[in-house]
Write a structure and sequence with these properties.
By secondary structure, the protein is mainly β. Helices cover 9% and strands 51% of the residues. The chain has a 15-stranded antiparallel sheet that branches. The chain has a 3-stranded antiparallel sheet with strand order 2-1-18, with no helix packed on it.
Length: 221
């Protein structure tokens, strides 16, 4: 009887230990994974990319509550993974490209006939992604986040330059997205037709690892 009891107790302890170990969770993985939360680690050097989420537009409005400004239906960012530590932690990336297709951009600012070009300057930017889903974009030391908008107006072409010290966004595993809401830029130069502040809003989804075969979506752990 004692032998049976000992064996039963040992089996129970073993089962409890295995249960505690359980399957891999987000805490056992890296900050960025593919295949799902707690999945395959994204390797340093991999290139991530995303375009605007289906049915959405990137906007740069003159106020955080207004609808006057510039709207674009096509935009894409590309970033290289620099570091992807164990979760919880902070993964870092280098944004090497952020483009807007002017053919899909419009403006409803009085006196503006169209959008000639939108350029994101001073690249690359550094992106930090936390396990909690916070996304922070910062420029190189001594630089700024800068966007140049060239508009066609009744008086000819004008160039508006907007700057920001950094941007804050949110990553969401529900649709593998990164969203920015009312990120404020201040006019650095340009004519009076250039609004004094620009509030940037955009949602990019899905974020994919283009280095890996099939371009799997990226999760944040």
């Amino acid at each position: 009887m004692r032998t049976r009891t000992s064996l039963a107790l040992a089996s129970a302890v073993t089962a409890l230990a295995l249960s505690a170990a359980g399957p891999a969770t987000a805490a056992d993985s890296t900050v960025l994974t593919t295949g799902g939360p707690g999945g395959t680690a994204v390797a340093a050097g991999d290139v991530l990319s995303a375009s605007l989420a289906a049915g959405t537009k990137a906007t740069l409005y003159s106020s955080s509550t207004g609808t006057s400004g510039v709207s674009c239906g096509t935009s894409t960012f590309v970033a290289e993974v620099l570091d992807n530590p164990a979760a919880p932690g902070v993964a870092t990336e280098s944004v090497t490209s952020h483009t807007f297709d002017s053919a899909g951009c419009t403006s409803n600012v009085i006196g503006v006939l169209g959008v000639t070009r939108i350029t994101v300057d001073n690249l690359p930017y550094t992106t930090a992604v936390t396990s909690g889903g916070a996304v922070t974009i910062t420029p190189a030391d001594g630089s700024t986040i800068q966007t140049t908008v060239v508009l066609r107006t009744l008086l000819g072409s004008i160039t508006c330059v907007y700057r920001a010290p950094g941007l804050s966004g949110t990553a969401d595993n529900a649709d593998n997205s990164i969203s920015f809401t009312n990120q404020q830029f201040t006019k650095f130069s340009g004519s009076s037709l250039c609004f004094s502040n620009g509030y940037f809003t955009a949602k990019y989804a899905p974020v994919t690892d283009t280095t890996q075969e099939g371009g799997p979506t990226v999760f944040v752990n």
